[in-house]
Amino acid sequence: MIKNYIKTAVRSLMKNKGFTLLNVLGLSVGLATCLLIVFYVVDEFSYDRYNVNAARIYRVSEDVSLNGNHIFSASTEKPLLDALKDFPQIEKETRIIPIGGLFLSPQKFYIRKGNTDIPEKNVTYAESGLFNVFTLPMVHGNPSTSLTDPHSAVITESTAKKYFNRTDVVGQTLTINDTGLYKVTGVIKDIPAQSHFNYDFILSYSSIPEYKATGWGYASIHNYLLLKPGTDVKKLESQILAIEIKNSFNPKIWTIGGNYLKIELTPLLNIHLRSNASYELTENGNIEYVYIFSVIAIFILLIACVNFMNLSTARSSSRAKEVGVRKVLGSARKYLIAQFLTESILVTLVSTIIAVVLALLALPLFNQMADKHLAFSPQSLSWLLPTLAIVVLVIGFLAGSYPAFYLSAFQPIEVLKGKIAAGFKAGFLRSFLVVFQFSISIFLIIGTLVIYNQLNYIHTKSLGYNRSQMLVIKNAVTLGKQAKIFKQELKQIPGVINATMTIYLPTGDDRNITGLFPELPIDIKHDVLTEFWPVDEDYLNTLGIKLITGRNFSNQLASDTGAMIVNEAFVKKFGQKDPLNKTLYRDTYGIQAYHIIGVVKDFHFSSLKDEIKPLAFYYDEDRGAITAKVNTANLPALMSQVQTQWKSLSPNQAFTYSFMDQDFDATYRSEQRIGTIFVSFTALAIAIACLGLFGLAAYAAEQRNKEIGVRKVLGASVSAIVSMLSMDFIKLVFVSILIASPIAWWAMNKWLEGFAYRVNISWWIIASAGGAAVLIAFITISFQSIKAAIANPVKSLRSE
Q1: CA-CA distance, 624 to 89, in Å (whole number)?
Q2: What's the pLDDT tens digit per position in 105-119?
Q3: Distance between CA 272 and CA 274 in Å, rounded?
Q4: What distance separates the 2 farthest-apart alpha carbons in the chain?
Q5: Under 8 Å CB-to-CB from 591, ≥6 apart: which residues?
Q6: pTM metric for this prediction
Q7: pLDDT per residue over 471-487, tens digit each?
Q8: What is the pLDDT of residue 366?
């Protein structure tokens, strides 16, 4: 019986090749797109799940609001874990201190290989307890003692192969930053890419120089807890908060005004997608974008399914007489239902197989767009195959349900007399489905326009500094005392306008926050929390930052060693109309006084998602990086001269550089990826919707073939017939615009709320999206309408 159903289904589908091809093409493209997005979403939700005890691991985070200064930080104090060791709820604990932590001076690491120093970024300090909390299998060495002694290091397998060409390297030494010899005490498997930290070098916590060991109030440590099963997390948060308040500078400060201190135990599985804390170990994902992609996947799948249902219901009307004949010949209703459902499931099955092939072929391109490394694997097949089987059955059943249950219920005498045909002209169900899929398409068009409008705003907005043709030499720290010499020689190269020496740049990752106080003795109630950057006298001129009052730093004035230049946001926070010559104090390893000598215009030194915050420059030497303003028509020749000068001073050090505009673009890489993917998927959604519309237009023209012939005989023009055939569909598109526009406006406004500086959704965006949808629909319909309008009416009327 089943074999007969399949044979009959194949014959019926082959008899209507055009409709079958449209169904298979639309559904396969929709399923392939959905499949790619599912892989992306599954990958995002898989972060940190490789840890055996992932559900019981929490990070201690601080939410602080002090005198109007607010910060939610992923890091907390060093002594905290020592104070928690006797808590019965805590099974294990560990801490990580990242290089360049919140209150530590930024450090760059260079590993000696032969005669070359190779820069490495993925370096951190940690304790042996790291291996008790996280699942980081050690292939060589003892995890319980590997990070106990000073100047010991645990490295990954790939790192061991990189530097020693083998993995059994316990006992070998690494030369770090020229002078530091670290003994390799352990080799672990490479940390999975789906991790909120991914280090190649883990140095022993005891290797940190004593002067950098921080106490209460200096939140530079990432503290993790492995809790016992059944722990009341909220209760533990309140207990930790009590310890934090007790050891704060002034416990009473948290009862004043709007000040507060909160402790949050962030679940490990929430860090990648749901943590928006400052000072994360790596760049996190965004749960909003996962939701956006998920919605897009559902939308595209719905559009493809709607197409399938639309074309199936449209074609079913032409099969009404077939149903009548079958019933007259004795076919039971259940067999008719089984036949229609078999055809539908068969089309869905073929489409699904093609979709898998398309997804495999498109995966490399999608990985490039999404900055992922997704791949089909045996693990993915364990959930993919059952999911696809369910998809085939569900979509096949839904798409075939209308012809199966509706047509099979007709009385054969009614069908054979032709009394059913008129009922298909109105096609309310098909009209509803067309409105539904074009509403989705218009929603995606509006979303695409808003995203690209915001990205264009980011790229064209005046940032308050010049990022064009700014060469950033990132590893100047390796030059040591010769960095200053290199800077001066760099300025002598033709084409170099100016140069400054500091790692603190608007497009950089290095940040330093401190508290400044207007009077002594220090009263934390008057703390001005500010970014605090060491710069030289060339910084403002090189970056084109505008000085609006006061003066720049001078290397001729000894008093400038205690001078500051602040931004407008600092002045506003400070509360002084004339801040020049005012003195503020910093309490870091002793009281230090700084007097304000100038005020610069606010500029964007962080993402446009954030408001401009207080910033103070102080005059000091920082050798972390050298930035040069260049202006040359022959950039390769200039770079060759710069590199030659570098090699003359440091022949064994790698020359690492970038351009500031590239670094700026990297800040918004996730938004750019969203824009690219949004455009791609919107184009696919529209294409799939047009396939369905094309099929419906062909069906409508076929159904009204004789009517068109009569109208032409009576003198109707081609344009009149095209207008008649198109108008019904265009009306549906206009209804879609009315439905989709307010929903899209609301959704995109919610997305824009993530930016402190953003565009408004102008009326022309809605109008453009609607106009584009109408134009696309009209072009799609016109192909079939014109074909029908110019056909010879004799052919259609011959049988009458």
Answers
A1: 43
A2: 445 677 888 777 777
A3: 6
A4: 108
A5: 520, 522, 585
A6: 0.79
A7: 998 878 778 788 888 89
A8: 87
